[in-house]
Amino acid sequence: MIVRAKKRLGQHFLNNESVARDIAGSIRTQDAAVLEVGPGMGMLTKFLQQRGFPHFAVIELDEESIAYLGKNFPGLDVIGGDFLKFDIDGFCAGPKVIAGNFPYNISSQILFKALDNKDSVVELVGMFQKEVAERVCAKPGGKQYGILSVLLQAYYDAEYLFTVGEHEFTPPPQVKSAVIRLARNFSKRLDCDERKFRNVVKTAFNYRRKTLRNALHSMDFREGFADERQLLSKRAEQLSIEDFEYLAKNLR
């Protein structure tokens, strides 16, 4: 089945059932509530329903899509509203999985929303613009490595699953897309203040062309800490998560 729909709210609707089936099948957590973001005309929804999760709901902002889902998916828990303003913890008790063919124009905000709810969001599986997916999964040393990479990988195991071409969508976007999986790793615990960690990471990458000595010059670090590691002569993209953690621990 190919669902034709106009582009709304920055979203491109998937028209390939095989891709939708693969996205739904990529969720590893079976015993959690699943929330699909931006289901549109329900291409992914039907395959998520078939997985038999303990609780499954969709959240959609577009009224036309809400009406379509209500008519074509009897019994589906359809939440009308903005995911970015949605109370994830109030959705239901226990662990949660976020899934979807995410709107490109709010994709980074969706990721930060999941990060802000990391204690209950145990997995995220979905479609992003390929460039965003590569940034999320990037390792130190490359241009793709940045704020999203460090902050998300501090808590989640990030995996790039597969690439999706432009013509698998209606209307076709001008970029390729990719499906990724974020799996919460509860053994990953920061040995520093989280707010300081975020501040150091964001500041360092905001001046990523500069060495850390210059990028972080306004921050007050513990005296003599720089002698213990040769970090300040490096640029942000050269540091591991542990390096950023070390910087945050030494920030007064």
Produce the secondary structure layout.
Layout: E1 13-14, H1 17-25, E2 33-37, H2 45-49, E3 55-60, H3 63-72, E4 77-80, H4 88-91, E5 96-101, H5 107-116, E6 121-129, H6 130-137, H7 147-153, E7 156-164, E8 169-170, E9 177-184, H8 194-206, H9 212-215, H10 241-249
Helix pairs in contact: 8-10
CATH topology of the largest domain: Rossmann fold
Name given to the CATH architecture of the largest domain: 3-Layer(aba) Sandwich
Please write the string of helix (H) and strand (E) elements: EHEHEHEHEHEHHEEEHHH
Give the CATH superfamily of the largest domain.
Vaccinia Virus protein VP39
Overall pLDDT: 92
Distance between the termini: 58 Å
How are the strands of the largest sheet arranged?
Answer: 4-3-2-5-6-9-7
Poorly predicted ranges (pLDDT <50, ≥5 residues)?
Answer: 1-9
Q: Biggest sheet, open or closed, and with what strands and sense?
A: 7 strands, mixed
Description:
- The chain has 252 residues and is α/β, with parallel strands linked by helices.
- The chain has two domains: 13-184, Rossmann fold (3-Layer(aba) Sandwich); 194-249, rRNA adenine dimethylase, C-terminal domain (Helicase, Ruva Protein, domain 3, Orthogonal Bundle).
- Helix 3 links the parallel strand 3 and strand 4 (77-80).
- It is built from ten helices and nine strands.
- The protein has helices at residues 17-25, 45-49, 63-72, 88-91, 107-116, 130-137, 147-153, 194-206, 212-215, 241-249; strands spanning 13-14, 33-37, 55-60, 77-80, 96-101, 121-129, 156-164, 169-170, 177-184.
